[in-house]
């Protein structure tokens, strides 16, 4: 295997690695170390079945399960193995066959609205549009490291509230349904495997700083959102069919750019469980 950086702050590309084949123990360990170092890993040129993707997830830990309530799962999910989620704008009878079908998405951490968010996400590209639908990844570690000492001191011991509604992309949209989820986590999260600190707030789902007045909370969060999304912390990935990307949700966030609604986009998603709540 050959590992090369994708961007200065985040991301590594692993070439010459066929994830349909059994890996040697030394190769698996090399991948795990690269994951902790780079936070985002690209495996180009893959030809994966669903079980291959689930097997790849197990390199990084225990495979996760779908958090999306069944009433919000498209019918096509019934034909997928446990742990595989379909991300697609393809429609049958006018209804999307997959989740998160259309348009751009603001920066976010997967499952930050749960008590124990997922450790990692794996996304595999099957069909992509001619333009757009890119995924951008931002390093929470680089963003934290670049803060002034006064900002680091100010953020110590502060927590933020995160909200998500599975039936909507509107931040804080509760609507009184069981598809609503929320959690409170530290603004500065420490990765228990590396000891590195990262900023753990995002524009899509973080709604307030616990214990602060609304005006001060909004001012702080807007500063942090803008800071975390700075280009110098970001890797911008343009998908190619056969790309598999795995990212560390504990210390990176990601966003999606807009794409033509009339063009097909199909990716499959798997996750890896974490072993403890953010701290």
Overview of the molecule:
It is a single chain. The protein is of the alpha+beta class. Strand 1 and strand 2 form a beta hairpin. The radius of gyration is 18 Å and the shape is globular.
List keywords for this structure.
single chain, 279 residues, alpha+beta, Double-stranded beta-helix, seven-stranded mixed β-sheet, four-stranded antiparallel β-sheet, 18 strands, globular
What secondary-structure arrangement, pairings included, does this model have?
Layout: E1 2-5, E2 12-15, H1 25-38, E3 40-43, H2 50-57, E4 85-88, E5 91-92, E6 95-96, E7 105-108, E8 120-127, E9 135-139, H3 140-145, H4 149-155, E10 159-165, E11 180-186, E12 188-190, E13 197-199, E14 206-209, H5 214-228, E15 234-237, E16 244-248, E17 252-256, E18 266-272
Parallel strand pairs: 2-3
Antiparallel strand pairs: 1-2, 3-16, 4-18, 5-6, 7-17, 8-16, 8-18, 9-15, 9-17, 10-11, 10-14, 12-13
* Strand proportion: 25-35%
Element string (H = helix, E = strand): EEHEHEEEEEEHHEEEEEHEEEE
What is the topology, as strand order, of the major beta sheet?
Answer: 1-2-3-16-8-18-4
Count structural domains. 1
- DSSP helical segment count: 5
Could you give a short account of the major beta sheet?
Answer: 7 strands, mixed
CATH superfamily membership: Clavaminate synthase-like
CATH level 3 topology: Double-stranded beta-helix
Envelope shape: globular
Query: What's the quaternary structure here?
Result: single chain
């Amino acid at each position: 295997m050959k590992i090369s950086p994708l961007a200065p702050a985040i991301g590594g590309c692993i070439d010459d690695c066929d994830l349909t084949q059994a890996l040697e123990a030394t190769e698996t360990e090399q991948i795990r170390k690269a994951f902790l170092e780079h936070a985002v890993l690209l495996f180009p040129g893959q030809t994966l079945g669903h079980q291959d993707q689930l097997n790849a997830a197990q390199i990084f830990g225990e495979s996760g399960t779908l958090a999306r309530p069944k009433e919000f799962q498209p019918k096509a999910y019934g034909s997928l193995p446990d742990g595989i989620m379909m991300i697609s704008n393809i429609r049958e009878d006018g209804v999307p066959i997959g989740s998160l079908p259309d348009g751009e998405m603001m920066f976010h951490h997967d499952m930050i609205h749960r008590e124990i968010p997922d450790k990692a996400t794996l996304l595999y590209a099957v069909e992509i549009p001619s333009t757009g639908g890119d995924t951008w990844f931002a390093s929470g570690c680089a963003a934290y490291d670049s803060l002034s000492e006064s900002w680091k001191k100010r953020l110590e011991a502060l927590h933020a509230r995160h909200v998500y509604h599975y039936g909507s992309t509107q931040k804080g949209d509760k609507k009184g349904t069981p598809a609503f989820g929320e959690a409170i986590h530290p603004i500065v999260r420490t990765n228990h495997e590396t000891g590195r600190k990262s900023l753990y707030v995002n524009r899509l789902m973080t709604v307030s700083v616990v214990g602060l007045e609304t005006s001060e909370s909004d001012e702080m969060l807007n500063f942090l959102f803008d800071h975390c999304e700075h280009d110098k912390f970001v890797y911008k990935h343009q998908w190619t069919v056969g790309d598999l990307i795995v990212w560390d949700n504990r210390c990176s966030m990601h966003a999606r750019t807009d794409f033509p609604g009339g063009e097909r986009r199909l990716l499959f998603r798997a996750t890896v469980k974490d072993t403890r709540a953010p701290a």
